[in-house]
Amino acid sequence: MTVFSDVAFTPTVKAIQSKRGSRSSYARREEKRGWATTVTENLAAFLSDADSFYLGNANAAGRPYIQHQGRPRGFLRVLDEKTLSFADYRGNRQYTSSGNLADNPQAFIFVMDYVNRRRIKIWGTARVVETDPALIARLFPEG
């Protein structure tokens, strides 16, 4: 059986949780309702209010990289219950995330609402899309 928390809680993490006394509370959560695997209405509302997030990925050798993404509120778009998207501006022109994603599609998004002390962590895969004008047009703010 796949437990969706296994993305973060590897067997080693679970062993440490057991050793330090926190495993039972996480196991109860996994048994009851588990972890969401789709974008709910509440999550979509939270994401639509965000004006920044952190995008994590890793290169082909597994070396991690994280980059701040900031734009006007609503730039992180929910396309469907399993797909998020955003326009990636050129920035400093290093293209580290683009290169990493070409070699390793594993990605992580961390959205923090500092004012309300809320956060969300999203694991998945990502890809760069440059050849879909209709999609690209949907990602830019009106005007």
Radius of gyration: 17 Å
Number of helices: 5
CATH architecture of the largest domain: Roll
Helix content: 25-40%
The number of distinct β-strands equals 6
Q: Which spans have pLDDT < 50 for at least 5 consecutive residues?
A: none
CATH topology of the largest domain: Pnp Oxidase, Chain A
Overall shape: it is globular
Q: What string gives the helices and strands in order?
A: HHHEEEEHEEH
Tally of distinct domains: 2
CATH superfamily of the largest domain: Electron Transport, Fmn-binding Protein, Chain A
Can you summarize the main beta sheet? Answer: 4 strands, antiparallel
Task: Spell out the blueprint of helices and strands.
Elements (H helix, E strand, L loop, with lengths): L10 H10 L2 H10 L8 H9 L2 E7 L5 E7 L6 E4 L2 E3 L10 H8 L2 E8 L4 E8 L7 H7 L4
Antiparallel strand pairs: 1-2, 1-5, 3-4, 5-6
